[in-house]
Amino acid sequence: MHIAIQGEPGSFSHEAALKFFPQATILACALSSEVFSAVAEGRVHAAAIPIENSLAGSVVEHYDLLLTHDVSVERELLLRIRHNLIAVPGSSLDQILRVYSHPVALAQCRRFLEQHPQIEAIPFYDTAGSVKQLVELRDRSSAGIASAQAAIHYGGEILAADIEDNPENYTRFFLIRRRSQVVADPHADKVSLAFTVENRPGTLVAALQVFAGQGTNLTKLESRPVHGHPWQYVFYADYQLSTATSANAALKLLADHCSRVKELGRYRSAMRED
User: Fold this and answer.
1) Which of 112, 194, 263, 264 could staple 163 via S-S, CB 3.0–4.6 A?
2) Which of 112, 124, 173, 195 does the annotation list as catalytic?
């Protein structure tokens, strides 16, 4: 399996891809749009994309890309985000004067940084990229905050493990494929979809009543602006289903109230990892 990810090898997306397929070959892309193009054009079998973090919220760009590309969600994964302080092998914690990482990762490790005021926190473009840089430079006074996968991939040493403030830190990942290549899961119990409604009173309420009328559990609702059409929105929803029949009925009824409905994927709900 060839799996595309956005970001450097050793990132949390890399870790998620290996959870989906432990023997996968990883194609690292600089931009999310490159990831989706690689899947849609058949240059990889699939991609692992983060869609939502339990603390930082949704990855809105990926919702937009799911809508505009001919791909579909096949599986989901809830990955526990464990941040680690990683340095050049042989370094010690009292040597570290600077730590690099993505701004979100730095923000999620404030308590650790407050406990070590001698360490200056410096934003970097990527968690795994920070480890890649310090290992290449052999800089013993610097460290990165990243996944254990980054330490493995670049030969770094973990000086402090699980330094995140909140242990309830999870990122929800989707495994996406070209729509024609998706393998249907007979045990699927969750649907992701996108829909738009006319900009007039009551249309959104009518659309949402479809879910209630079918007895489905609406677990997420997100709105995004329609590019080129100010004050118009696309709504992204996740709902749980009891049967495939109820899922199909909800989609059919939504079409009566919406100007556009697109199913983004039908898959099995993921369990949280410890």
Assistant:
1) 112
2) 173
Residue 205's domain is classified under what CATH number?
A: 3.30.70.260
| 174 flagged as catalytic | no
What residues make up the domain containing 261? 190-267
Phi, psi of 226 (to 5 degrees): -85, 120
β-bridge partners, 191 = 239, 266
The closest of 130, 87, 100, 94 to 115, measured between CA atoms, is: 94
**Shared-domain flag, residues 62 and 176:** yes
Same domain, 36 and 101: no
In this predicted model, what pLDDT tens digit does every residue of 107-159 receive, in sequence order?
999 999 999 999 999 999 999 999 999 999 999 999 999 999 999 999 999 99
Nearest-angstrom CA–CA distance, 169 and 179:
30
| Catalytic member of 171, 174, 195, 196 | 171
Last-in-domain residue among 133, 149, 181: 181
CATH number at residue 52: 3.40.190.10
For residue 273, is it within any domain? no
- 27 assigned to some structural domain: yes
Please identify which residue in the block is written with the tokens 């701004």: 103
Low-confidence ranges of the chain (pLDDT < 50): none
Residue type, 84: N
Please state the pTM of the whole predicted model. Answer: 0.91
Active site residue 171: yes
